[in-house]
Design brief:
Elements (H helix, E strand, L loop, with lengths): L1 H14 L4 E2 L5 E3 L2 E11 L7 E6 L7 E5 L3 E8 L8 E3 L19 E3 L2 E3 L5 E6 L6 H6 L4 E6 L1 H4 L11 E11 L5 E2 L7 E4 L2 E2 L1 E6 L2 E8 L6 E5 L5 E6 L2 E9 L2 E3 L4 E7 L7 E7 L33 E10 L26 E9 L11 E3 L11 E4 L3 E8 L5 E5 L5 E5 L14 E4 L4 E8 L10 E5 L2 H5 L3 E7 L7 H4 L3 E3 L6 E5 L4 E7 L5 E6 L5 E3 L6 E9 L4 E8 L1
Parallel strand pairs: 1-16, 2-5, 3-6, 5-11, 12-17, 16-24, 25-28, 27-34
Antiparallel strand pairs: 3-4, 6-8, 6-9, 7-10, 10-11, 12-13, 12-14, 14-15, 17-22, 18-21, 18-23, 19-20, 19-22, 23-24, 25-26, 28-32, 29-31, 29-33, 30-32, 33-34, 35-36, 36-39, 37-38, 37-40, 40-41
This protein binds CU-O-CU linkage and copper (II) ion (CU) (2 copies).
Length: about 575
């Protein structure tokens, strides 16, 4: 059966080669933005229409154009029959505005995050993040680009006319069944789509053109280059412009990553070239290479049937046409100033170890976990002090490379397998591809501006099947001025935990209030100045909770509590 689906896809891939004009998503900007998540249908092929999801349309989502420093209010209406969330990938927002799995938008309801745009000018994106459903919701079509502008970017002579010389390029591959419906979980993702367009072409002017590349695919890594062999110029990565332009011939782009490149089309009027992925050059151990695992004999079911794996293929046909009125004709060399955090100022180091759940030749099929534990909504994996600079070591003990992503803050890569990053990876990042086979990456960041004792931020593999399969963890950013610092927590004990009907608080401090809070943040029990620091839980149902203790000095602490 699976084999039959594979053949159907392969035949569509070879027969459906008429070129279609690249779809350019509409833009939305301003202080109030309405986003309506909806079901739709799209005629990708002859025959049955494909059932899709989209925002303000049948498929994909409008491009949001925001200015650093502006206030924005996003009203997100979910008209699906399923819950979902919307996460502003790469943006520095408070955890309650971040749209992670703890902030579901129920069917027929709204979510209205409001925040100041604090990010550097760059390309970000938004997509669902409901645990176990992220891949499904993204694959069905919910994904949009966010362009942030600022005065530093504006001061540089760069192409910035959206859809004309500044082009959104959302790269995705999908699989379709013989009834033209999207298959969510399969290695047969052989249909390439740019902004939802199959076999896309764009007429671009004979001048410097900016491509905002976003890998919105579930799993695939692209090895980008131009069919005419020309170099291109990288000007920005995930979280901002680089310090200086970097001339490249190839660029790897993993799921979740963004890159802004300048392509020099000066003098090419009338010519046709292609943005391609040179998959044949990807080293083994990367999803998209001839072998997804580092060693032979490790493969993913159906992986070898997919004509994209280990091969070169076109992403976007570019037909070069006449120039625009005020063309950009030169590539700027100096861009913006960076002040990366210094290793000697790090207050904390942490290690996240990636491992397969199953050992042996099937290890590559996943699931994969961090620190030997699958993601647990009720487990806070790390508590970080607000304003701390931290160094994280990512240790990949699996046979395949994983794109690691962290919410809240951009980071700078310190080294990859012990070697300082090449210039194309030296800018602000929020996704990094961690090499397989005992590969390591170290990065440095600072957890500034936002703390919340109740709502965590996520870190995860951005291969969406891996994320949904549990390759995710969460952290709380805690403000030492509003809660007890970590070391003084050691003198505070709550036992037993798990418990049945009674809890004892062991502390020398005076307890002002104890609250038991359920998974959606509702207080189910609140007790003032408990006698003998003993709490009866006879009226609370079994389940997972948080216990929040407020001391008489107004310090608060929160812990996970399990009732049996
Ligand atoms: Cu783009 Cu947590 O995700
Ligand atoms: Cu994110
Ligand atoms: Cu992964």
């Amino acid at each position: 059966m699976k084999f039959k689906i594979g053949l159907a896809i392969i035949s569509l891939h070879f027969f459906g080669n008429t070129q279609n004009p690249l779809f350019i998503p509409d833009t939305l900007s301003g202080n109030t933005i309405q986003l309506t998540i909806q079901e739709g249908q799209k005629q990708f092929f002859s025959g049955a229409a494909t059932l899709t999801y989209g925002i303000n349309g049948e498929f994909l989502a409008p491009t949001l154009i925001l200015n650093r420093g502006q206030q924005v209010s996003l009203n997100v209406s979910n008209t699906l029959s399923d819950s979902t969330t919307i996460h502003w990938h790469g943006m520095h927002v408070a955890p309650e505005n971040d749209g992670g799995p703890h902030t579901p938008i129920l069917p027929n309801s709204n979510w209205n995050p409001q925040f100041e745009v604090m990010d550097w000018a760059s390309t970000y994106w938004y997509h669902p993040h409901l645990h176990h459903k992220t891949n499904q919701h993204v694959q069905k079509g919910i994904a949009g680009m966010i362009i942030v502008r600022d005065s530093f970017e504006e001061a540089i002579s760069l192409p910035r006319t959206y859809g004309i010389d500044d082009i959104p390029v959302i790269i995705q591959t999908k699989a379709f069944d013989s009834n033209n419906q999207i298959i969510v979980e399969t290695a047969l993702d052989s249909m390439v789509m740019i902004n939802g367009t199959i076999n896309a072409y764009a007429d671009l002017p004979a001048q410097i053109v900016r491509l905002r590349l976003l890998n919105g695919s579930s799993e695939r890594i692209y090895n980008l280059g131009l069919s005419n062999g020309s170099d291109f110029t990288l000007i920005g990565t995930d979280g901002g412009l680089l310090e200086a332009s970097v001339t490249l011939n190839r660029l790897k782009l993993a799921p979740g990553e963004r890159a802004e490149i300048l392509v020099n089309l000066v003098g090419l009027n009338g010519q046709t070239l292609y943005l391609k992925s040179f998959g044949s050059e990807l080293p083994n151990g990367i999803y998209g290479a001839a072998q997804p695992g580092m060693g032979a004999g490790q493969s993913i079911p159906n992986y070898n049937l997919n004509p994209l794996n280990g091969n070169d293929f076109n992403l976007l046909q570019v037909n070069v046409v006449g120039t625009t009125a005020e063309p950009v004709l030169n590539v700027p060399s100096n861009l913006v100033t960076h002040n990366p955090w210094q290793e000697q100022n790090a207050a904390q180091t942490r290690t996240v170890t990636f491992s397969p759940v199953n050992m042996g030749p099937t290890a590559i099929n996943g699931p994969f976990v961090f620190d030997m534990m699958p993601f647990d909504m009720m487990m806070i994996n790390h508590t970080i002090q607000l304003n701390d600079i931290e160094i994280w070591t990512l240790q990949n003990n699996t046979p395949i490379a994983h794109p690691f992503h962290i919410h809240d803050v951009p980071f700078y890569i310190l080294d990859i397998n012990g070697i300082a990053p090449p210039p194309e990876l030296a800018g602000r990042k929020d996704v990094v591809l961690v090499p397989g086979g005992m590969g390591t990456v170290r990065f440095i960041t600072r957890f500034e501006d936002f703390s919340n004792e109740m709502v965590p931020y996520m870190y995860h593999c951005h291969m969406l099947t891996h994320e949904d399969g549990g390759m995710m963890g969460q952290f709380i950013v805690s403000d030492p001025n509003s809660s007890i610092t970590n070391h003084s927590l050691d003198a505070f004990t709550i036992y037993p935990n798990p418990t049945f009907d009674q809890l004892i608080l062991q502390t020398s401090q005076n307890v002002e209030k104890v609250e038991i809070i359920n998974q959606i943040g509702k207080i189910v029990l609140s007790i003032h100045q408990p006698k003998n620091n003993s709490i009866s839980l006879v009226n609370v149902n079994p389940g997972s909770y948080f216990i929040r203790v407020t001391l008489d000095n107004q310090n608060k602490l929160t812990r996970k509590l399990v009732l049996e």
